[in-house]
Amino acid sequence: MDSAGEFTNGELTNGEPTNGHRSLYRYRELKTGHIRLVNVHPGKSNDPIRCDIIHAPLNGKGSRYYEAVSYAWGDVHSQSSIRCGSNGDEIIVTDNCVSAIRRLRFEDQER
């Protein structure tokens, strides 16, 4: 959450890992006029990917600057996982998404 309290993280599951994996991230319902943004933690190219998902209004008070990336290309069956939230819950994403995040994230600050 930012200092103005406008953004909230998604809820994380507290259940036991399934199939030998960590808990899966559970998305919260969006309020009307809000979007989900991914806040990517800093890291070097091959470091594990960590992120937070925040809800932000599209317009008005609390709206925020963001960059949009389209990664819906390539093989949708080729998947990897990234870690999200303070518990490091797992989100399954396409390998193209992972490649895009690795190329775009900063080493020394969040993006």
Task: Provide a quick synopsis of the model.
With 111 residues, the protein is mostly beta strands. It has one helix spanning 95-104; strands at residues 8-9, 34-40, 50-57, 79-84, 89-94. Strands 1, 2, 3, 4 and 5 form a five-stranded mixed sheet that branches.
The computed structural class is: mainly beta
Which consecutive residue ranges, at least 5 long each, have pLDDT under 50?
1-19
Q: N-to-C SSE series?
A: EEEEEH
SS summary, helix count: 1
Total discrete domains? 1
- What does the overall shape look like? globular
Report the β-strand fraction as a percent range. Answer: 25-35%
Biggest sheet descriptor: 5 strands, mixed
Mean pLDDT: 79
Number of strands: 5
Radius of gyration: 15 Å
User: Could you estimate the helical fraction of the residues in percent?
Assistant: under 10%
Distance between the termini: 15 Å
